[in-house]
From TrEMBL:
Residues 111-314 form the PhoH-like protein domain. Belongs to the PhoH family. Keywords: ATP-binding, Cytoplasm, Nucleotide-binding. It holds the Pfam family PhoH. Its main location: cytoplasm. One of its GO terms (cellular component) is cytosol. GO terms for molecular function: ATP binding. This is PhoH-like protein. It comes from the Bacteria. It is found in: Cytoplasm. Gene3D superfamilies: P-loop containing nucleotide triphosphate hydrolases. The keyword ATP-binding applies.
Amino acid sequence: MSEKQLRLPVEDEIFIRELFGDFDSNKKVIESTLNINIVLREDELVLIGEEKSLSIARCLINELFKIRKEGESLNSQKISYVMNLVLEGNNSEINKLLGEAILINHKGKPIKPKTIGQKSYISVIEKKDLAFGIGPAGTGKTYLAVAMAVKALKEQRINRIVLTRPAVEAGESLGFLPGDLKDKVDPYLRPLYDSLFDLLGQEKYLKYMERGVIEVAPLAYMRGRTLNNSFVILDEAQNTTKEQMKMFVTRLGIGSKAVITGDITQIDLPRGKFSGLKNAIQVLSDIEEIGFCYLSDKDVVRHQLVQKIIKAYDKFEKEKN
């Protein structure tokens, strides 16, 4: 088929700069994926390629321009994600990414879901008393749950945020680690601290921690408690036992909401121990007030290489089984 040209007028310099990327990195990905050439001539983009490819490229650039017009910056991850949606014919889904921010962090940055899966995850958290976010590393499960907790606290819908995770992972035993209990468990809880610090900033973070408004603790500390008017998050839930999971989900008190996150492909429990997260999926899936959201490699928002790594491991595991 003969090549054709498509001319698109573009006067937004920031849009062009972000669309092309550093050293034309984004432009090269678009060109290789859609099998087209993109040339910038004064105030217009000239696209060269077959008619079908040009039609897809026009749609992609229009959708990216809409996103940029809403104040969203364009990076390689976002451009690739939107391009995949366009290629799959899911253009209508892209508008779901243009909603309001969950909250504004201490640096003035709006925190928003970056994928359709993340948007669904936020919706489940909003609608259900107990929400499960299940998916691979890098899909924003923990960070978005903490963001929703901070939002609920700011809106005074809860009085306290409680963040917890199993204290022992990757086969390490606390008894053999140096230091007091705080020294031993802090490394396991560090990702939760990091999320809070990023969302709140140092001053508010320290103030809330000192006042007990925010509590970060090992899962064992939840036993025997009733958590009222709280937003409770259990992270790394794949490393709970069945008994620990049952203990946690029965801590929920009046006016409280809970989110449980985990990746069932990264279970570090000793041989012979069944994951409490896997068990909960089997036992609790029919309860109306409980929601489940399954994220995939498409929702990974870290380096694009992470997405490829997750796909490779998934493929290997499927072939092995």
